[in-house]
Amino acid sequence: MNVMIDLCVVPLGVGVSVSPHVAACQRVFQDAGLSHQMHAYGTNVEGEWEAVFAAVRRCHEVLHEMGAPRVSTSMRVGTRTDRDQTMADKISSVEQKLAPAQ
Amino acid sequence: MNVMIDLCVVPLGVGVSVSPHVAACQRVFQDAGLSHQMHAYGTNVEGEWEAVFAAVRRCHEVLHEMGAPRVSTSMRVGTRTDRDQTMADKISSVEQKLAPAQ
Amino acid sequence: MNVMIDLCVVPLGVGVSVSPHVAACQRVFQDAGLSHQMHAYGTNVEGEWEAVFAAVRRCHEVLHEMGAPRVSTSMRVGTRTDRDQTMADKISSVEQKLAPAQ
Amino acid sequence: MNVMIDLCVVPLGVGVSVSPHVAACQRVFQDAGLSHQMHAYGTNVEGEWEAVFAAVRRCHEVLHEMGAPRVSTSMRVGTRTDRDQTMADKISSVEQKLAPAQ
Fold this sequence. Notes:
The structure is a homotetramer.
Chain A: E1 2-12, H1 19-31, E2 35-39, E3 42-48, H2 49-65, E4 70-80, H3 87-98
Antiparallel strand pairs in A: 1-3, 1-4, 2-3
């Protein structure tokens, strides 16, 4: 089963700057060979369910290894059986609706 | 690694009433033997990482089997290495802070 | 317009224990006279849209006043026009579906 | 108080395709003159608290007007008092950490 997620990891107990932790997660997704795209308040990741959630678990482990005693992640998790749809498909589908109005 | 999650499954394409789908997920958590507690806008689940996320995957599968072509779940995922803390611990920790003020 | 939310406030830069901050938010909802119910990974709040979101804003302000330089909240926000439904209604609607199976 | 949010609106009872609804929300943010950026599983919006949440409310109203009897939105809401940080700043802060490793 394919899945698309959007996640935002928040390490607690490491101060205010979390960009090193976010960067570490980007490397986790890259090392896992998963399609991913960072935005200003999270990261989109898509792939096979087990591979995606193994990477999410690895993010938590890496952040704990970096010294965060606590990690709280917020996620959206989307699956569909009607058709395949990539991250690019979802954006272009909305943009087609926007085009006539502009 | 132990994990506590809060999740809210939203099946799309099945109309407005989603309570049968939420009930099906409660049964998934129960069948998995996972500690879980439903509230008005989601469900807390705690346990070992792999068991919890296998149940989340099973929820998506069950909802698709029930006819939902698309499922969008929002989740919080919390892990900590400093100490064990159950769902009941978290609530009582806040209630202790509230008590003196009342 | 009535709204039901579920929110989880996460203060950054204040260490690992966030229960004083969660307790402060409970007082904000209580002072606002809003129906609210804490669970192990968040709080349900329901009421008129403006009153609910004024309280959410007040939570962020209070946490900053308590010393958190950064606050990241995750929320679910639900509205419906087909009928009124309280937090208790939502839970009992699911429990009715669960009953026959037990 | 400035705020950065990431939101994903999910209309229920309108079938599987939600791109017209997502497009309608993009227009709400554009009409409100708010800085916003869509991604594959949500939209980042930043601005003054009241303006941003007035737009979120408007999204719910517009989706109900488009025929959705129920709307469930998931959001992240971030505020900080230590410094100003735009959506572009957040991304470039992570990219600087990634650069040396590549």
